[in-house]
Amino acid sequence: MWPGAELPGDGGPSVRSIVRIVAVVLVSGLALYLVYRLRTPITWIVIGAFIAVALSAPVGVLEKRVRRRGLAITAVYLGLVLVPVVIGAVLVPPLVKETNSLVDRVPTYAKDVQSFVRKNKTLRKIEQTYDITGKLQQQAEKLPSKLGDATGILSDIGLGIVNSLFALITILILSAFMIGGGGRWVDSAIRGRPPSEHEMLHRATHDISAAVIGYVAGALGQAVVAGVSSFVVLSILGVPYASALALIIAMLDLVPLVGATLGAIVVGVVTLFNDFPTATIVWVIWSIVYQQVENTVIQPRIQARTVKVQPIVVLIAVLFGSALFGVLGALLAIPAAATIQIIAREIRHYRRLTRIEPSGPAIVRPPAAPG
Asked: What whole-number distance in Å separates Cα of residue 47 and Cα of residue 72?
């Protein structure tokens, strides 16, 4: 008998129970520590699984045409890789051109400020005291020469881009493997469960896959509508680089809740330098009207037909996801909420059938989630 051990029947916990509790606590702490240390590759795996599920639909459609799954996967991933190339081809040239133009015009802007100050009595007194415009002119003249000092910053940006590319390539490779063998892995895992659970697990995986695919398709469709409509409005207003700005609107529109507003603000700043105040006023009115239509008509219909998640759940999921993982968390929050909802529904249904059928639950499909 160990010192301090309780005798059987005296009402206290046994030594074995205490050891078991301590072991569970230690193992749980070790598991949490490992998850924390491996949070980066775990995040990559989660993103890879999301991409694999989202791309499984186009891969399946293309596979029916070419009758070779490997070729279908290769073609879909080549198309996916070309997307950032096309985006860069649209955005980079005008960005570089306008940046160089801004640098060249800064001295002119400084002279305009000096001229405006000389014509205003109050500002002229402040200028005589602090020589603000003179200092501004000096800094403006030094700006072109200071561009050479940006080498260190650019090298840091380049290193960040290389690291991001490595992560992206790794994620794409993981998702490609998941598409190639994910179905077999899921079927093998389901076969390892009791036969009474097979129907429930197959149904849950099918519904989760459909929710993720529907969410991605709906989000892309919503972004296309936002981009095309913005391009039309910007073209009518005569704003330069309307296609690049519309692409920015479409990309930011993929971010739930705040993306459309951020895109509208970015384009609104551009209109200030184009035809102020006419273009700016028209754009602000258009953005407010369109966002109301998107929030009350377009987005609810998409969510009701695809992920079937209530608006309050969407809001809470996006807030939690963005707080934990930033923009990436906001993007994955809605399909994650749909997945949790589907799993909870199936567990409730399975437990209810288990209580009704002690010998084993009957295979009955639960009622569809409310749209």
From this structure: 21
Name which of 215, 196, 195, 197 is nearest 207 in CA terms: 215
State how far the Cα of 184 lies from the Cα of 243, in Å rounded to an integer.
43
Output b/e per residue, 297-324; b: 16+ Cβ within 10 A. Answer: ebbeebbeebbbbeeebbeebbeebbee
Q: Is the separation of the CB atoms in 342 and 207 below 8 Å?
A: yes
End-to-end CA distance of the chain: 63
Q: Is 2 helix (H, G, I), strand (E, B) or coil?
A: coil
Whole-number Å distance between alpha carbons of 263 and 9: 70
Q: Which helix H or strand E contains 166, and what residues bound it?
A: helix 151-191
The count of other CB atoms within 10 Å of the CB of residue 117 is 18
Lowest pLDDT segment from 39-48, 155-164, 187-196, 323-332: 155-164
Rounded Cα distance between 142 and 165, Å, is 35
C-alpha distances in Å from residue 284, one per residue of 221, 230, 264, 281: 23, 12, 8, 5
CA–CA separation, 359 vs 338, rounded Å?
31
Q: Tell me: the pLDDT tens digits for 317-354?
A: 878 887 777 777 877 888 888 888 888 888 888 788 77
Q: Taking a C-beta distance cutoff of 8 angstroms, is the pair 274, 238 a contact?
A: yes
- Of the candidates 98, 89, 83, 88, which has an alpha carbon nearest to the alpha carbon of residue 266? 98
pLDDT at 103: 63
Run of H or E residues at 49: helix 39-66
> What SS3 class is residue 165?
helix
Q: State if pTM tops 0.85.
A: no
Residues 361 and 346: their CA atoms lie apart, in Å, by: 12
Neighbour tally for 212: CB within 10 Å: 26
